[in-house]
Design a protein that fits this description.
heterodimer, A: mainly alpha, 16 helices, 0% strand, globular, B: alpha+beta, five-stranded mixed sheet, 23 strands
């Protein structure tokens, strides 16, 4: 298929996935902020969200104070913030628009419908209705788009590039969410009882709470949470599941220039496939996740050069 | 007033024309609320599917709908036959003219067209001299605008031979009518139009470069911000061909390739929806980011076919339009079957004098204008507008032509105040290829929704209607 078409499909999927995971991240942060704690530590958590996306400076140019309402406004509906949910859904729609002939009618209508509905709600509406309801709406729209994608698209390269983009973005985003929340939770180690709610919120944000119960049938511990989200092959949002999908998609779209990118994906996959959680934690979870995100970034770079923007 | 216009549905005595009788019976049984509900349903569906046209200068995502009218324009079989024969004749002559002026220029030597009108025309492309195109076809797709005047006689208003658009609305309007009112299609024998993309693809495949047996066809678009982008995606999807932009293509060894995820792939036929000026920055507009450097060299070498060919604009130019009947006589030895609108060419002093004295009665158009921009409709203009336009004419009369204000026919149309007559035109699409000329019955009917308006262009608030050619 046309490289530019593949590029648009890939980024459409990445932005759709990113919007969803941003909603998940903000939702878990919001839920956690409801757990009793000092205002200072609460605002520290919101600052961490900005830091996670390297947005402190951009935020400071517009807002004087880091607090829940300002950060939500900035990350949800600020059209000038390229990382906001608003901007992600706009970019997803623009990419879809550029290749709408390649999409099935249902897919285009889903992506376009999400955008039309989003434009009808301003931040005051969202606040009034409750931000969690808005985050649920974002997740629901992502689910609808994903559903019509798999339910209507021909299983050809177009679908493979959409899946590849989604998996790459999801792997990165899961690592980010885990990295940030793990960091905060470890800091608050001494607060004891509330940890249960915090770990629970993290698992729920990645749709993994019930899964945790089912898999471990035991108390929630940080090591098991990390194992579930990183190493479990059967959890759809885990790093291992994402890496596995990336390897399979790359096999399907391989061309004469993509051997090195395939090799790198294979290495990433093997490191997850044969890892033990004790080793991961012993080496430092933050270091492990940072290394993972770097490798995802390089894979993205390789995919661009091999398939999307060939010289 | 309405008696001065030909009404498509009723004769001057107010009697229903026979080809509308079954429709009128049906309409009489339809409560106004149901019609209104159906119209709202059509709007919603068009919006959701995104059948829109982009408005230049507005934020992305604010595309507008072209209003769709639920009352069809119906054409009886015999009338369509006559129209079709006339269109074939006309397009055949126009293609012969284009071949001639880029080769022997026989018609210029006879004196029936002043040579400087052709050779000094900005749309005449010297780069095309002596270039042989497959089957001698230049205008593979023509969108000929036809209007019907006071007594019911048809006139050709314009021959659009560059990148005529609107065919997607013809197809979508039909789909919508079938969805809203399926019962109408069992009451009438309505000639189908939805196979147009198949005909177009087949037509494009027949004009592939010599020796290519299984040509790769692509549709070249200026991009997502072009006003006709919806149509580009629609046609590419319906034909199953890649929709490409200039940056997707490159030329190597006088051959055109597209960049794909599996490496470069050779292109044989380009259905281009991009004007000549932007096609190749090495030859035409140097600043164009939309084209493909080297495309003209590949084209001249015969390694790729462009549809339409480069340089067709000289044949649909308003300064050449008055000579089309002469072309038909010269190339085909036939009398023209379709009427030309009498045209004053303001470069001629006598014509200029007459027109300046009768501005309030005439329509004045820029020779190179299109889309309903840059024109004066005398009877519908204020004195100040006329004087303003007069000043523009006097500074450069050669840039203008004038025509009598045609009493465009009208047809009942569903508007705010109920059902009322509105003026319309018809754009049939004529396909020319190696195997001759083909078209689907009908075309795009455009309707001026403002009361009394004679301008049907979508950029000026026009809408569309489904067009039914009845089969006997």
């Amino acid at each position: 298929m046309l490289s530019r078409t593949a590029d648009h499909l890939y980024w459409m999927a990445r932005y759709t996935e990113r919007a969803e995971n941003l909603a998940r991240l903000l939702d878990v942060s919001y839920q956690m902020s409801l757990v009793p704690q000092s205002l200072a530590s609460q605002n520290e958590n919101w600052r961490a969200i900005l830091a996670l996306n390297s947005l402190e400076d951009a935020f400071a140019r517009v807002y004087s104070e880091v607090n829940v309402e300002n950060v939500l406004r900035f990350m949800v509906s600020d059209a000038a913030n390229p990382s906001s949910i608003y901007s992600c859904l706009r970019a997803a729609r623009e990419n879809a628009h550029a290749v709408r002939g390649t999409l099935t009618a249902e897919m285009w209508e889903s992506v376009n419908g999400t955008w039309i509905e989003l434009r009808q709600q301003n931040f005051e509406h969202i606040l009034a209705r409750g931000v969690s309801e808005f985050f649920d709406w974002v997740k629901l729209r992502a689910a609808v788009t994903r559903g019509v994608t798999f339910g209507t698209m021909l299983k050809d390269d177009a679908l493979h590039f959409i899946r590849l983009g989604g998996l790459l973005e999801r792997g990165d985003n899961t690592a980010r969410i885990l990295d940030m929340q793990y960091h905060i939770l470890r800091q608050n180690d001494d607060e004891g009882a509330s940890d249960f709610y915090r770990w629970g919120a993290l698992l729920r944000s990645l749709s993994a709470f019930q899964v945790y119960r089912k898999v471990y049938r035991d108390a929630i511990t940080p090591a098991r949470v990390a194992e579930l989200l990183i190493l479990r092959m059967d959890l759809p949002r885990s790093l291992h599941a994402c890496a596995d999908g990336i390897v399979r998609m790359l096999q399907l779209i391989a061309n004469g220039a993509s051997a090195e990118t395939e090799r790198q994906a294979g290495v990433l996959h093997a490191r997850l496939h044969f890892a033990r959680i004790d080793d991961v934690l012993a080496g430092g979870l933050h270091e492990y996740l940072t290394d993972f995100m770097d490798r995802i970034y390089e894979l993205g770079d390789g995919i661009s050069q091999d398939f999307l923007i060939p010289a | 007033m309405s008696a001065d216009f030909y009404n498509e549905m009723y004769d001057p005595a107010g009697t229903l024309r026979p080809h509308y009788s079954a429709f009128a019976d049906w309409l009489a049984t339809m409560p106004a609320e149901r019609l209104e509900r159906k119209r709202a349903e059509a709007d919603t569906a068009f919006h959701r599917v995104g059948i829109t046209f982009a408005v230049y200068g507005e934020e992305a995502g604010t595309e507008r709908l072209i209003p769709f009218d639920i009352i069809p324009r119906i054409i009886p079989a015999a009338e369509w036959q006559a129209l079709q024969t006339g269109l074939w004749q006309r397009v055949k002559a126009l293609n012969a003219f284009l071949h001639d002026i880029y080769h022997e220029q026989a018609i210029l030597r006879t004196g029936c067209i002043p040579p400087e009108q052709v050779l000094n025309n900005t749309q005449f492309r010297h780069e095309m001299m002596g270039v042989d195109v497959p089957s001698g076809i230049y205008a593979h797709i023509a969108g000929v605008d036809i209007v019907r005047a006071g007594a019911g006689e048809s006139y050709v208003l314009e021959d659009n031979l560059r990148v005529p658009s609107g065919v997607s609305y013809m197809i979508e309007d039909r789909k919508m009518m079938m969805r809203l009112f399926p019962e109408l299609f069992s009451r009438h024998m309505i000639a189908p139009v939805q196979h147009y993309p198949d005909m177009l693809l087949e037509n494009l495949r027949t004009v592939a470069p010599k020796g290519v047996t299984n040509p790769t066809v692509v549709l070249l678009t200026p991009g997502a911000y072009n006003s006709a982008y919806f149509e580009h995606t629609f046609l590419a999807q319906q034909m199953g061909v890649e929709l490409v932009e200039g940056r997707d293509l490159f030329v190597k060894d006088e051959t055109v390739f597209m960049r794909t995820t599996q490496g470069p792939q050779r292109i044989d036929v380009i259905y281009r929806r991009l004007d000549d000026d932007f096609l190749d920055p090495l030859v035409f507009n140097k600043d164009s980011m939309l084209g493909v450097p080297g495309l003209l060299s590949a084209y001249r070498a015969g390694h790729v076919t462009l549809a339409n060919a480069i340089g067709t604009g000289v044949a649909d130019d308003k300064s050449i339009y008055p000579y089309v009947p002469e072309m038909i006589r010269f190339y085909l030895g036939e009398e023209p079957k379709l009427n030309n609108v009498p045209t004053w060419m303001l470069r001629k002093p006598d014509d200029l004098k007459y027109v300046l004295a009768h501005l309030s009665e005439l329509v004045v158009k820029e020779v190179h204008g299109a889309g309903g921009y840059g024109m004066l409709v005398g009877p519908a203009s204020t004195r100040a507008e006329i004087e303003n336009f007069r000043a523009r004419i006097v500074t450069a009369p050669e840039k203008y032509i004038a025509q009598p204000t045609l009493a465009l026919s009208n047809c009942p149309t569903f508007v705010e105040s109920g059902i009322a007559p509105r003026h319309l035109d018809l754009r049939p699409f004529v396909l020319s290829g190696k195997r001759g000329i083909g078209m689907v019955p009908g075309g795009l009917t455009r309707v001026a929704l403002r009361e009394g308006s004679l301008v049907v262009n979508s950029s000026q608030g026009g809408g569309t209607k489904d067009t039914w050619v009845l089969e006997d």
